[in-house]
Amino acid sequence: MTRFPIVARGKRALSLTWLGLCATAALFAASAPGCDGDEDDGTGGAGASTSSQGGSGGSGGSGGSGGSGGDESSPCLDPSTYAELFSIVDPTLCAVGVYTAEVDAGAPTWGRHGGPLLVQTEDGDPAELVRLTPPAEATGALSTTVTQIATGVPDGSFLGGQALDLPFFDWTALSWTGAFPSTEGELLLVSDDTVSLRYAVNGFYAGAALGNDADGRLLYTALSPVGAAAAGNNALYAADTCGAVGQDPRLLPEGDATCAAPTEVSAWGDLSGPIAVDRDGNAIVILAGFTDQEARGFSAAEIAPGAEPTVGETLFTLPGFGSSLAAIAPEGDTPGLLLFQPYDGATYEALDPIGVHYVVDGTVKPDGEPVQVLKLTSADTAVSLTTDDANQIWVGASLQAGRTTFVILARR
């Protein structure tokens, strides 16, 4: 059976790329190979982003403590420090940090602890939340903290590849999806080491989050709104916060007329895809068809908690599909940068990461055509992408199982 980049270890850790294909296959007559729960383990990782993550990919606006691997004054590192992974083609970027961790690359988001957050599992349950913290220096090893979570994921189902620290109610979001054709699953909201709430959702793929305890929003790509088990449109969805800390915090109104029900923001394509929220709260989402993929941008105002559904602005349409993206927010007259790794739709090969510059003027608009940003040293190297709270992109890759190198990209 063909192997795909996985986002967590173990037989019940379905690839984030393949999860999108499998989940949306429920809308069609035939399933994709590997969607029946028999996918082989793979190596490497292709993640969704954060500003995270956000975020997938991530929790934009969630902030964090601890180091972020350098800042705008950090010197650029010699290219030899990351040459085994890639070279930087874009002259406006350089590497300001290189770190290693004894984990698979997975689908990291930016955690509230001030470093990458991963979820992994050996055999479905319990899940492990892995928090990586950078040292003060520009190079070195990331320290690791692991928390086990009893998720109650049913046997034969797949734990989602992304863990997401939400900027409200101190929750961390996880998910699981059933094997095709039963793609019903759940969104799990974790407090400390316990699942405090669980909501039905179909084909949850990737998420990002905005706001705070008083006014928060979970954005995610899936086949249904939170609270609905049946498959609907392949779309970007939103679930706004209701209640307050210590006063029945939740994502469903449950009869409260002051709360909005989860809603579909915009539907396009046939297959779920990743989402990134930049530091300013602008969201970029990629959903794919069976031959190509379309990226749409949503400004912070268009996507804020309580905002009405909106179509979004097309940033690019490309062949194939992809599962890893992250965004650097605009600064002054400098446009933002969306970094994305596409996959060949016929061979499933991971291609060189590309970038699209964007500006925000009421909406998120492209500022030029997609261009190559990184040149992979070895073809078909899957990378994970996430944005930290210093507006830098972390590029992770696992050249060997169980070990990941993260390279932090910043503007010169």
SSE topology:
Elements lengths: L15 H9 L61 E3 L4 E9 L7 E2 L5 E5 L6 E7 L5 E3 L1 E7 L8 E2 L4 E2 L6 E6 L6 E8 L2 E9 L3 E6 L4 E7 L12 E6 L1 E3 L2 E4 L12 E5 L7 E3 L5 E6 L3 E7 L1 H4 L9 E7 L1 E8 L7 E8 L10 E8 L1 E4 L4 E2 L1 E3 L7 E4 L5 E8 L2 E9 L1
Parallel strand pairs: 2-6
Antiparallel strand pairs: 1-28, 2-31, 3-4, 4-5, 5-7, 8-10, 9-10, 10-11, 11-12, 13-14, 14-15, 15-18, 16-17, 19-20, 20-21, 21-22, 23-24, 24-25, 25-26, 25-27, 29-30, 30-31
How would you explain this protein's 3D organization?
With 412 residues, the chain is mostly beta strands. It has one domain: Neuraminidase (6 Propeller). 3% of the residues lie in helices and 42% in strands. The chain has two helices and 31 strands. The protein has helices at residues 16-24, 300-303, and strands at residues 86-88, 93-101, 109-110, 116-120, 127-133, 139-141, 143-149, 158-159, 164-165, 172-177, 184-191, 194-202, 206-211, 216-222, 235-240, 242-244, 247-250, 263-267, 275-277, 283-288, 292-298, 313-319, 321-328, 336-343, 354-361, 363-366, 371-372, 374-376, 384-387, 393-400, 403-411. It has a five-stranded mixed sheet with strand order 6-2-31-30-29, with no helix packed on it.
Which features characterize this protein?
412 residues, mainly beta, 5-stranded mixed sheet, 5-stranded antiparallel sheet, disordered N terminus, signal
